[in-house]
Amino acid sequence: MIRKCNEHGYFRGESCPECGDEGRYVLDDDREERLGRFVSGSLRHFPVDVGLDMDSQGWVELDQLCAIMKKRYKWGTMERLVSLVESDRKGRYEIDGNYIRAKYGHSVDVELISDYPENELHDLYYGVSQEEADMLLDSGIYPIRQCYVHLSTSYEKAKQAALVHTDNPVIIEIEANKAQQDGVDIVTVNEDIVLARGIPPEYIFILGSEE
Q: Which long-range contacts (CB under 8 A, 24 or more apart) does 120-123 make?
């Protein structure tokens, strides 16, 4: 459920996490899920199919997305679209003026690397199955279904991501700072996720598996 606190803005849940106020109703759980699936698909996977004009950095006009959304969901409003973005705990989207885009998770090819500020990263983490681990040590980490590799800023986040696909994940550590010094582009999109076009094998090693 999404509600709005007059003082602290949109939030998910029954009460504002900042002040405890119950706020004003914006979206129930069912509509939040349906709208979330539509926005994710439109901005990450099939913008052309829904009629969106997306630029090379993944931006689309907010008004255009809202108009397309309203054709599918009569209850869709600009406020509900904005509330979905601003209350998202995972920071999946961003709005800049009258433009909106997904910050990560794309299967359509977009250029994000040059659009985020330079950073200096320490070690990063990536969770895989035991079957994949040895292969990645030889070949490096490169995207398969998405256009970027999504790396985690902590061991625990990598483990959580990997548990979606395997019961016994192997956690790979990436020497991000050394890779950056050698010219590998790695950008931060939020406190948990960084993106790269690929990580060559010389910067990765296996930490271990969860028993």
A: 120/177, 120/180, 121/153, 121/176, 121/177, 121/180, 121/186, 121/188, 121/194, 122/176, 122/177, 123/173, 123/174, 123/175, 123/176, 123/177
Domains defined along the chain, listed by start: 2-102 (1.10.10.970), 121-209 (3.20.170.30)
Q: DSSP secondary-structure letter at 190?
A: S
**3-state secondary structure (DSSP) of residue 156:** helix
pLDDT digits (tens, 9 = 90+) for 121-143: 889 999 998 888 889 999 999 99
Query: 23 in helix, strand or coil?
Result: coil
H or E segment and range at residue 66: helix 62-72
pTM for this one? 0.84
